[in-house]
Amino acid sequence: MFEAIIAAIITLIVSFAGVSIMGEMFLYLGLPPILIGTIVGVGTVLYNKLDDCANEVMIDKKEIEELIKLRDMELLSDIELEEVIELYESRNAANAKYEQYQNGEKVFNELKVLGYLTQDQYTDRLNGLKKHFYED
Fold it and tell me: Keywords, A to Z (predicted)?
């Protein structure tokens, strides 16, 4: 979001500078491409931020509510609540990672059954998949 604000401010500064230097000609010839570029740039930055948020694995709202109830009953401290939320998030991330691995494995298996991949190619692809998901 910060990048989008900076891009918009820079565009305004360049636009005003261009108007004062070039006059009316700049308004018709130079300003539209700058504004379009800024709009596209800001849109790209915002899209990337939204995409990053969508890819994050979040804990369920119901799970958080239940944990907060336990904290309110003084069965969990604030520190324990944060630790448990982190534990749930890491569990959810691991589950998402495993599901992605299974989907990839399924695709490669189907390609092998269809005759697109040989047994050696299939084994190589599965090894690459394992390396990608389970080796850092």
Answer: Membrane, Transmembrane, Transmembrane helix
